[in-house]
Design a protein that fits this description.
2 domains; Alpha-Beta Plaits; alpha/beta; metal ion binding; binds zinc ion; Peptidase_M20
Length: 387
């Protein structure tokens, strides 16, 4: 089962869907047009059931095989949302919405899963049920979490779930995957250091919040270098540092910092939060200031399940002859929530030598469509072989 001929035939049609989505990007949960198109197509393909409004603007389609005696139900998930980036590709189908852009290829993901749904609804050459899942708000909004909270897995009886993301740098038509932790947890923090402002010429009458905050930034580096096991991964980055004074001669009353903590292990994630809070609070106290920490939990670590990962790689090898071992990725992915609820796997499909995702010159490669669609179809037909 290399590339399926049907997807070579469908390529112009799927490409047209993809470019239309690209031209009309929608951010977070505002995927109203996109969701409407997805639902309309799924109905036109003859899906047995189409449900809208799960996880606010998510869409689900159900396709039953020629037989369903196996009792198996597999979920296939794509994301639909764009990013608040101003597109600079110069492509004829570039975003028509200033400040919004499909810079992560979710237009391609949606189009590929629609293509697979069309094929699966036409052929139904499997024994079981496929649930195609189109989620909003992957880019920081937790759309996957919201769909799970709306009972996605239970309502459709999903037993296993699979996801796919295009990846620049992996050759077109090739795949990469890894078992276990794959994408990082992505927490965010704000630290406010409250000192005592005053005249820059009279530091002894102040509590210099800028000096205190600087000590905090330095001390936070000890989490990765001295608290974490050096064979594991953790990133602690302070990304914003704003004092309440813009003057040359004023010691600021307050400093506000922002940043992110990313890890590949739930235990290290807990340690990171504990150490960050303790370091900020006690360092500030040591200098007579006060620290307020607001720690905001983001996506959990995305962990691929062993057996399903091996299966996903087998299907990829059938499609493209090979499946590489993917590196750890310190970005986040809210498919993590679905993999917390059900066994499954997430795979990368090559986008070729393009700008990286989230770059204003990035574009999804339509040449990746046949491989991506063939992988989706292969997962279904191999996991639930026709009776
Ligand atoms: Zn992204
Ligand atoms: Zn993405």
């Amino acid at each position: 089962m290399p590339i399926k001929n049907r997807f070579a035939e469908l390529l112009p049609e799927i490409t047209a869907w993809r470019r239309d989505l690209h031209e009309n990007p929608e951010i977070l949960y505002e995927t109203h047009r996109t969701s409407g198109i997805v639902a309309e197509r799924l109905r036109a393909f003859g899906c047995d059931d189409v449900v809208e409004g799960l996880g606010r603007t998510g869409v689900v389609g159900v396709i039953r095989g020629k037989t369903t005696g196996s009792g198996k139900v597999i979920g296939l998930r794509a994301d639909m949302d764009a990013l608040p980036i101003h597109e600079q590709t110069g492509k004829p189908y570039a975003s028509k919405t200033p400040g919004a852009m499909h810079a992560c290829g979710h237009d391609g993901h949606t189009a590929m899963l629609l293509g697979a749904a069309k094929y699966l609804a036409e052929t139904r050459n499997f024994d079981g049920t496929v649930v195609v899942i189109f989620q909003p708000a992957e880019e920081g909004g937790g759309g996957g979490r919201e769909m799970c909270a709306d009972g996605l897995m239970e309502r459709f009886g999903i037993q296993e779930v699979y996801g796919m993301h295009n990846w620049p740098g992996i050759p077109l038509g090739q795949f990469a995957i890894r078992p276990g932790a794959f994408f990082a947890s992505t927490d965010q923090f704000e630290i406010t250091i409250e000192g005592k402002g005053g005249h820059a010429a009279k530091p002894h009458e102040t509590v210099d919040s800028t000096l205190v905050a600087s000590h905090v930034v330095l001390a936070l580096q000890s989490i990765a270098s001295r608290n974490a096991d050096p064979t594991e991964q953790i990133v602690v980055s302070v990304t914003s540092f704003e004092t309440s004074s813009k003057a040359f001669n004023v010691i600021a009353q307050r400093v506000h910092m922002k940043g992110t903590v990313r890890t590949m292990s739930p235990e290290l994630r807990k340690l990171g939060q504990e150490r960050l809070t303790a370091i900020a609070e006690t360092t500030a106290r040591a200098y007579g200031a006060e620290a307020k920490v607001n720690y905001m939990k983001g996506y959990p670590v995305m962990i691929n399940h062993g057996a399903e990962t091996e299966f996903a790689a087998e299907v990829a090898r059938e499609v493209s002859g090979d499946c590489a071992e993917a590196p750890l990725i310190m970005g986040g992915e809210d498919f993590a929530y679905m993999l917390e609820e059900r066994p499954g796997a997430y795979i990368l499909v090559g986008n070729g030598d393009t700008a990286s995702v989230h770059h204003p010159e990035y574009d999804f490669s339509d040449e990746a469509i046949p491989a991506g669609c063939s992988w989706w179809a292969g997962v279904v037909e191999r996991r639930m072989p026709a009776a």
